[in-house]
UniProtKB/TrEMBL annotation:
Organism: Dipteronia dyeriana
Domain of life assignment: Eukaryota
Region (Disordered): 67-116
One annotated GO molecular function: zinc ion binding
Transmembrane segments: none
InterPro entries given in the database record: Znf_CCHC
Taxonomic lineage: Eukaryota, Viridiplantae, Streptophyta, Embryophyta, Tracheophyta
Gene3D superfamilies: Zinc finger, CCHC-type
Protein name: CCHC-type domain-containing protein
Domain CCHC-type: 89-105, 124-140
């Protein structure tokens, strides 16, 4: 479409009484279209009736050696290298790759510059019931086993 004049150029040629076909590329003109289809088109017929030289008939052409990639097709677009990438995090607890809809923690409280979940709602260790670790990392695990 870049070889056809725009509406502004057509208006300017009409205003100056010029022929707008001088602005068109040759392939957009009517005579070029007529010349393209003036040559008779002959059907090839069935491939068994074709006359093929022995040299060409002996060549074996295989299908391309390409396979679809395994797995489900990628959804979404490819991110440009100039774009920033962000990691989704929960509004409630701040954990990455989690959203607030599925978060087991209650909403955060705002106390000045400190934001966090109240201690009574945070996850506690199932052994000593203190906050900040779980049963795998509990410092009292050895004393409870004895």
């Amino acid at each position: 479409m870049d070889h056809f004049p725009c509406s502004h150029a057509l208006a300017a040629t009409r205003e100056r009484n010029l022929d707008f076909t001088t602005l068109c590329a040759d392939y957009g003109k009517r005579q070029t279209l007529i010349n393209a289809y003036s040559v008779p088109i002959m059907p090839l017929g069935h491939p068994s009736t074709w006359v093929v030289s022995f040299d060409i008939a002996q060549r074996v052409i295989l299908n391309p050696n390409a396979r679809r990639q395994a797995g489900r097709p990628r959804v979404g677009r490819h991110v440009s290298s100039s774009e920033r990438t962000t990691t989704q995090s929960c509004r409630r607890c701040g954990q990455p790759r989690r959203n607030s809809r599925r978060c087991p923690n209650p909403p955060m409280i705002n106390e000045g510059t400190r934001r966090g979940v109240p201690d009574e709602y945070r996850h506690k260790c199932s052994i000593c019931h203190s906050i900040g670790h779980n049963k795998q990392t509990c410092p009292n695990i050895d004393s409870n086993r004895e």
